[in-house]
Every structure is written in structure tokens, then in C-alpha cells.
Design a protein that fits this description.
single chain; alpha+beta; 5 domains; 13-stranded antiparallel beta sheet; eleven-stranded mixed beta sheet; 42% helix
């Protein structure tokens, strides 16, 4: 029930009388007290009739402006203050007579961790967007810490344990969920930041208004895309849900809110009245008896669960501003808040006319002072009016901005609405805001007797009648950049730990990127391998249809293979496991449809031969001979459309073909390869006997001699290419991890081969990841840099200073964010996810099975 203030007449009668105790005061004190009481009574009267507010004029003076909003008498009328009606098709709300608004949610960007030219670039783009708005458009930027039920949040982002049959998998799932729950926290609700752009237009023709709003949407969509952000419509139901959750006590799920809306139209009482949309959204008890806060209860019982809301506003700004203030107040931890910028473009021509009038008036005033000084026999410079001169200088500077510097003029007010479950929490939140504003020299005050209005102008409905405004140029207004820090909250993604800026969890799904290519780079001991293993574990646990393939040159993935019953394929001179480098099928190749498998195979076999003969040893003649022999040995197999496996060639057939060629270079090449065909290194001269029969496969090349390790990489990669092609037909995703990637860069053809896999990976549903600690070798290699540049995803850990600069350049990481890679603790790094960069830290307790499986410090790993 909406509670009413004390009757006005009773207030006047009771409060204007002086008690016997007060009569002992002096006459001066009595008069002062009477004046205070009368003023309070008058304010009370005005509060019960119409709210008043202040508007700062161009001259800097204040005048009282009546607000046309009548004071609501019931909780139903409270809701009616926010909107009159809405269009479900267009999601446009009518918020007042002839006034309509539409709301968009936009994605944040990492502005708080950018520096230098990038900061200026964002400021200029934001200023340009503001300048594109005309005086008929009211713009509202809303930063809302939206509450979500923690239980539902955890269910949304945790792993499903129910379908795990393997005990170790169940344990790993539970341990990952424990880490996720600790990151989310144990409070009843979890705060998630949502950012909204609300555009409001005024007019009589609704069709014309809706068309103009569509044009404004296209303009905003283009500009926000330039920021690296994006916008999406907030539906009518989502906006109503925001209002319901603010005016009531608890966050509700979408399903629960649907049930609430279903009450609309149901019979309410015996008089056949039905529930309206205002009835179902209204709080049960809404108390505005306090002048500086709103109190909401779950029932008419004052002792029932409650919520406190207080709105503050920015009363004054310092002479020089930075984006720091907006950044600070929108990132306060554990405070439920709604920070709103209400922006109204003004008519530059009209405003310029007023400024010119001001300047003319101040010049006349100065001339009068000069004449007066001369008349009295002294120079004006001796008694110069510094306040007048300062105002004149500022006015002339403003005129220059408007006429020559392409500045526009705006009215702006900033509302800070705080929401808490207790008065103590509300007080603490208020003190935090006042402390931050004090540090930034920003004057923040509480709205007195105007708390409902404050809330009205804070929520994303587009109201802007409060008019406690500051008049700012577009440059000054643009300093309130509505961006802060990027969060990745993709429920289908892998858990990467805590975002070090926002302190929220990070979940990222590489399958949603433009391509799934990635890299993991770090110096030795910085957590590179540990992070890769946590990724693989989560892939196997969360994506049951996906396959994972690892090339392991150090034999360090054995514990993981055992835990997940994976398949280990050991390639060495002592094993009886063989892969025929000539294996090919119809889907083999790197082309974008219609590729010639034999032509693609030729490029690979040139790289294969050079890996055996030595990098840079093949000349043009030898490459031509390899090309010719490849086509000869594949002719029959190709004519069978690669279906008759008995016609498939191998290294022995190729070797015989080489010996049959007339050129002396062919004979020399055949002689060089003889060791690998009939000698002790003949492991690549046999038919393939490897059968991948597991979704988790590791190719172990740790026992290969160094001289043919590069060749082993190539043969395995080519074999995997056939697997990728096979899985692509089945629409399966394949995650390929290439550890100690720098080994492949020793041969230019093998480096180029990996670059081709990265280039064509998306076509084959491949998510390729190169892993290395020898970053300098990668950076010095053209193909290595190309592979990194073609990576939409990266996990970067501790870097050497010289390497860090190059990595910053490749991934466009600003200096301030790069500081997270300078001697960080174990597990701390930066994630690159498309255009986004996030500093993160994944802490895994050392008493968990995850830690035992992934820790390589005590393993006997071959040092490569």
C-alpha cells in the first residue's frame, strides 16, 4: 500500500507552534526556528501537490520549474509514472503524452584498460555520435547492476554432472563447479552489469516517430560497431521485467515473469474488476515518507522483507574532467546501482544567440566599470573585476567552440540510484559514492523530496523532465564515456577464471568466433601447459560430440589420457605404429570447395621431402620432379575417386617412381630418401595401421630422433588433416593442439603447411591451437607471425620484455593491460577473444584432482 505524508494542515498547526522549551531561546533563535518550520511546512505542501526542481539558466542563476507529474496515491499509480502504454511489435513505449522511447542493450568494451591514441579514438567517436543527435532526440545511457538469482546463475554456467559415467570425470566436473561457485559467490543474488541506450522522441504522429526511431537505431548500430561494440533491442517484456524487479524485492526468472504477466486480465474482485499491467507490476508496499529514500516492503507489515532505494545526482563538476569518475562509480563492487546519463541536445543557433547576448551584456558592464574608474581618476586595470573577466573569457571561449570547433551544446544530468536490502547497506553504498565523488572533485547530492522522480529518471524508460541539468559542450560531455570493461559470459563457453577488472567469472566459446584458431604463449613455468590442459578437460566434459587431438613432443599428456580413457598413438623408430604420408581422400585439401586433392598433396610432399633432406636443400628442378612423380603415383588412385585403397601409393612406390626419372637430380633425391624407405628410418614407408577410435587422441613423438622430429610433425599433421576432413562431413568440431610449435618453424615448408591449416580451419570445423614457450622463434618467422595474426583467440601469460612488445603489436594490446603480463603470478594472463582483451586469473587449489593431473612441475619431461 502506498503511504501518505502527514496532513498538510496538521503539519502547519503542529509545526508552526513553539514549545515551552523553545520559549527559553533568544528572540533571534526563535525567529530562525520559526522560519525553518514554515519552510519545512511549505516544502511538505509542495511535495503533496507537485514536485519542484531546479534548472540552471545560461547566466548561471537558478529558477524554480514545476514538474507536471502529480504525486501518485497508490502503488498502481507509481507504475503509471513510468509508462502509459507500449507496442509489442515495435517495442516502443509511450512514456508521456506525445513522447515515445525505445531501448537497446549494448555490449561493453575494454575502455578502462586502454591508453594513449586508443582512448582519444574512443572519445572522438563518442563525441561524433553525440553530435549526430538533433535537438528532438533525448538520449539516455543506463549502466545497471542487474540482480540475477545466484542459484539460477550457477545453474546456467556450471557443468552438468548427471551424464558423467566415469568417476574421475564426475570428480573433475564437481571441482570445476566448485571453482565456478567460488567465483560467483554465495549471495542470494548475483549482480550482472547491463548497459542500455534509450532514445526518446516527441511528436503527434506515431508512425513518423517509429520510422525516425528505426533511422536512429541504424545510426547507433553503425557507430557502436566502430567502437567494437554492438546493440540489440530490449523487448517490451524485458523492460517491464527491469521495472518489476526494481519495484519489488526479488529477481525473477523469465518463466516466473511470464506467469506474473499472465495475471493481466484476470478477475480481481467481486466488482468484476480485472488486473491491469500496472497492478501486476506494482509493489505491495511503497513508502516515501522519508525525504531522501524510498522504502519497499513485501507486504503492509512494516516488519516484512524490505528494500531501500536512494537516488543522488551530480550537482556540480570540476573545471577539468577525465573519464575516471564515470569509470569508478560504474565499477563499485557489491553495490546494486543504476547510473544514468540523461542527455538532451540543444539548438546551437538559439544557444549561440544567448551567449552573444551574455557577452554583449558583460562587455557593457565592463565598459561601465571602466568609465566609472576614469571618472574617479584611476585606471580600471588597478581594480579589475576578476569575476566578470573570468565569466567573459569563458563565454568567449564557448562561442569559439560553437562557431569554429564544431562543438554542440547539451543539457545533461547524471542520476545515481542505489538499491539495498537494508538501511545500513544503503548508507554504506552512499558513502562509497560520496567518497569517490570527493576524490574526483565532483559534487554529488541527494535528491530531497524527489526520490520517485529520481528513480523515474534512472530506469531505462527515457524520462528527462527533472532538469537538474549541467550545460556542456560535446567535448566535455564525451568525457563520460559509457564504456568500462568487457565481460565474457557465454554459458556455452569454457571457464577461464576471474576477470581481473570486473571481478566476474569468464566463460568463452571459441566456436562463436569468426574462426576458431588460437594460440597459448608463455615463458617456461608461467602456466602455459596447465591452462591448455584445463581447456582440454572442459572440452571433453562439456562438448561430448567434439574431438580433441594433441601432438605431444614431450610425453606430458599421459595423466590426462588415462583419466579420460583416451587413445595414445606413439610414433617412433622403435614402435610398430605407422602412418602413410600418402594417405588421401576426396575431401583432402585446403581449397574453398572443388580443391584438387593431388595438387594439395603435392605441396605437402615437397615439404615432407625437404624435412628429410634438410631445410632449403630442394631446388626448382627437384620440386618439379616431386610434382611429376606425385601425379604419376596418384593417377590410378585418383581415377578410382580415391575409393580403391589397394591403389593408394606409399613412399616405396614414390621412391621407385623417382628412380625411373631420367634426370640426375631424381636419382640423387632417390638416393637421399633411400634411408627412409629401406633403411633404419623406414617408419614412414609402411601402410597406415593407425585407427583413431577415440574422441580424445594424443600423438606422442617424444621418442623421435631430433633429425626427423620435424618430419614426424608433418606426417601426423597431414594424417590429422584427413581426420578433419572426415569430421567436417559429419559436422563435428575438432580441437587440435600443437605443442612446442616452434619446432615446425625450422622448415619453411612445414611452417607454411601449418599456416594453411590455420587458413582453412574454419571450413573444416577445426579449432587449431599452437602452444609454445619459444616465442622469439615464432615472432622472427614470417609464417609464425602470420599464424599468430590469424588467431582470433589467444591465452597470453608471462612474457619477456622484448617479446611482449611484439605480442602487443600483433594482438593490439594497450600498455596498461600489458602490465598484467609483466611478472604475473602463476595462472594470470590476458585472453584475446576476437576484438576483446580480458585480463584473467584461473586459480586451481593444489588439493584438487585437476591440479594433480595438470601440474607438470614434478613430471620427468624431456627438455626440448
Amino acid at each position: 500500500m502506498f503511504t501518505k505524508k502527514t496532513n498538510d494542515a496538521k503539519v502547519m498547526k503542529n509545526q508552526t507552534s513553539i514549545s515551552q522549551k523553545d520559549k527559553k531561546m533568544s528572540k533571534k533563535e526563535i525567529r530562525k526556528k520559526e522560519q525553518e518550520i514554515k519552510k519545512k511546512a511549505f516544502d511538505s505542501q509542495m511535495n503533496n501537490k507537485r514536485y519542484t526542481s531546479e534548472k540552471r539558466t545560461v547566466s548561471g542563476k537558478k529558477k524554480k520549474v514545476k514538474n507536471p507529474m502529480l504525486k501518485p496515491r497508490t502503488t498502481n499509480e507509481v507504475v503509471q509514472c513510468f509508462f502509459k502504454e507500449f507496442d509489442k511489435k515495435t517495442n516502443i513505449f509511450k512514456i508521456a503524452d506525445n513522447k515515445y522511447s525505445v531501448c537497446y542493450e549494448y555490449k561493453d568494451i575494454n575502455f578502462s584498460k586502454t591508453d594513449g591514441d586508443e582512448v582519444l579514438n574512443v572519445l572522438v567517436k563518442w563525441r561524433d555520435y553525440l553530435n549526430s543527435l538533433n535537438e528532438n532526440v533525448s538520449c539516455h545511457i543506463v549502466d545497471a547492476n542487474t540482480p540475477v538469482k545466484t542459484k539460477e546463475f550457477k545453474e546456467k554456467y556450471s557443468m552438468d554432472v548427471s551424464d558423467k559415467l566415469n568417476p574421475i570425470e564426475t570428480q573433475l566436473c564437481e571441482e570445476f563447479n566448485d571453482m565456478i561457485y567460488k567465483t560467483i559467490g554465495d549471495s542470494e543474488v548475483t549482480l550482472t552489469t547491463r548497459r542500455y541506450l534509450v532514445l526518446t522522441l516527441e511528436g503527434d504522429d506515431y508512425k513518423q516517430i517509429s520510422k525516425q526511431l528505426v533511422d536512429l537505431e541504424h545510426s547507433a548500430m553503425t557507430k557502436f560497431k566502430e567502437f567494437g561494440s554492438s546493440i540489440s533491442i530490449v523487448t517490451w517484456k524485458q523492460r517491464l521485467k527491469i521495472l518489476y524487479e526494481t519495484l519489488n524485492l526479488n529477481a525473477v526468472s523469465d518463466e516466473e515473469f511470464d506467469k506474473i504477466l499472465e495475471q493481466v486480465g484476470n478477475k480481481k474482485d467481486e466488482a468484476d474488476q480485472t488486473y491491469t499491467i500496472y497492478d501486476v507490476l506494482a509493489p505491495k508496499y511503497f513508502n516515501m515518507r522519508e525525504d531522501d529514500l524510498i522504502e519497499i516492503h513485501d507486504s503492509n507489515d512494516p516488519g516484512s522483507p524490505q528494500k531501500f532505494i536512494r537516488t543522488l545526482y551530480v550537482a556540480d563538476l570540476p573545471s577539468s574532467m577525465t573519464p575516471r569518475f564515470y569509470n569508478r562509480i560504474t565499477t563499485i563492487e557489491d553495490v546494486m546501482s543504476v547510473i544514468t546519463l540523461n542527455i538532451q541536445p540543444l539548438n546551437n543557433g538559439k544557444f549561440l544567440k544567448k551567449v552573444n547576448q551574455q557577452i554583449t551584456g558583460m562587455k557593457s558592464e565592463r565598459l561601465s566599470k571602466v568609465k566609472k574608474a576614469q571618472k574617479n581618476g584611476y585606471d580600471y586595470s588597478i581594480v579589475v573585476d576578476e569575476a566578470l573577466e573570468d565569466k567573459l573569457d569563458k563565454a568567449q571561449e564557448l562561442r569559439t567552440d560553437l562557431t569554429k570547433n564544431k562543438q554542440k551544446i547539451f543539457d545533461m544530468n547524471m542520476m545515481i540510484t542505489l538499491i539495498a536490502n537494508s538501511y545500513e547497506d544503503l548508507t554504506n553504498a552512499t558513502l562509497k559514492i560520496l567518497e569517490i565523488s570527493g576524490e574526483q572533485l565532483v559534487d554529488v547530492k541527494q535528491l530531497m523530496f524527489m526520490q520517485l522522480e529520481g528513480l523515474l529518471h534512472s530506469l531505462p524508460f527515457g524520462h528527462n523532465e527533472l532538469m537538474i541539468n549541467r550545460t556542456l559542450t560535446s567535448d566535455a560531455l564525451a568525457l563520460n564515456v559509457p564504456f568500462n570493461s568487457k565481460d565474457l559470459l557465454q554459458p556455452s563457453g569454457l571457464f577461464f577464471g576471474q576477470n581481473l577488472v570486473s571481478k566476474r567469472g569468464t566463460w568463452a566459446d571459441r566456436r562463436k568466433l569468426m574462426n576458431g584458431n588460437g594460440c597459448v604463449l608463455a615463458t617456461s613455468g608461467a602456466g602455459k601447459s596447465f591452462n591448455v590442459k584445463t581447456q582440454i578437460e572442459q572440452i571433453l566434459l562439456k562438448y561430448p560430440e567434439d574431438e580433441v587431438v594433441i601432438i605431444d613432443p614431450q610425453g606430458e599428456y599421459d595423466p590426462l589420457l588415462q583419466a579420460f580413457d583416451g587413445q595414445k598413438i606413439k610414433i617412433s623408430t622403435n614402435s610398430k605404429t605407422y602412418i602413410n604420408p600418402f594417405d588421401t581422400d576426396m575431401n583432402y585439401g585446403f581449397g574453398d570447395g572443388g580443391a584438387d586433392p593431388v595438387r594439395e598433396k603435392t605441396e605437402y610432399l615437397i615439404a615432407f621431402c625437404e624435412s628429410l633432406t634438410g631445410a632449403g636443400t630442394l631446388d626448382g628442378i627437384e620440386k618439379t620432379i616431386i610434382d611429376r612423380c606425385t601425379r604419376i603415383v596418384f593417377e590410378d588412385y585418383q581415377n578410382s575417386h580415391f575409393s580403391d585403397k589397394s591403389l593408394a601409393p606409399d613412399l616405396k612406390v614414390f621412391h621407385e617412381c623417382l628412380k625411373m626419372q631420367p634426370e640426375i637430380e631424381a636419382q640423387q633425391l632417390a638416393l637421399t630418401l633411400e634411408r627412409y624407405v629401406n633403411g633404419s628410418m623406414d617408419l614412414f614407408a609402411h601402410e597406415t595401421n593407425v585407427q583413431i577410435k577415440n574422441r580424445f587422441v594424443c600423438f606422442d613423438i617424444s621418442d623421435l630422433p631430433t633429425s626427423i622430429q620435424n618430419t614426424g610433425y608433418l606426417v601426423i599433421l597431414d594424417h590429422i588433416m584427413n581426420r578433419l576432413a572426415h569430421n567436417a562431413v559429419l559436422k563435428k568440431c575438432t580441437w587440435l593442439y600443437i605443442d612446442e610449435f616452434h619446432i615446425l618453424l625450422k622448415n619453411p615448408y612445414s611452417a607454411e603447411y601449418v599456416a594453411k591449416i590455420y587458413k582453412t580451419g574454419r571450413k573444416l570445423n577445426a579449432l587449431n591451437t599452437v602452444v609454445t614457450q619459444n616465442i622469439s622463434e615464432v615472432l622472427e618467422n614470417p609464417q609464425g607471425r602470420k599464424i599468430l595474426s590469424n588467431s582470433e583467440f589467444a591465452c597470453l601469460f608471462k612474457q619477456k620484455p622484448l617479446d611482449l612488445k611484439a605480442i602487443q603489436e600483433i594482438f593490439n594490446i594497450p600498455n596498461e593491460m600489458a602490465s598484467y603480463l609483466q611478472d604475473p603470478p602463476f595462472g594470470q594472463g590476458i585472453m584475446v577473444f576476437g576484438e576483446d582483451k580480458l585480463p584473467f586469473n584461473l586459480f586451481v587449489p593444489d588439493n584438487t584432482e585437476i591440479y594433480k593431473l595438470n601440474n607438470t612441475k614434478n613430471m620427468n619431461i624431456r627438455d626440448l
